[in-house]
Amino acid sequence: MTIAGFVSLLTARLEALYDGDEARSVATIFVCDELNLSRTQMYLQYDNNLDKCIADKLLQKAERLQSGEPVQYVTGVASFCGLNFKVDHNVLIPRQETEMLVEAVCKHVKSLKHANILDIGCGSGCISVCLKKFLPNASVFSIDISDGALDIASNNAKLNDTAISFAKYDILSESCFPFSEKFDIVVSNPPYVCNKEKALMHRNVTEYEPALALFVEDNDPLLFYRNILDFIKRHQPNFTTYVFFEINEMFGKEMQKLCNIYGNNAEVLKDLNQKDRFVKLSM
Question: Please, what are the domains in the chain?
Answer without folding.
Answer: 3-75 (1.10.8), 91-282 (3.40.50.150)
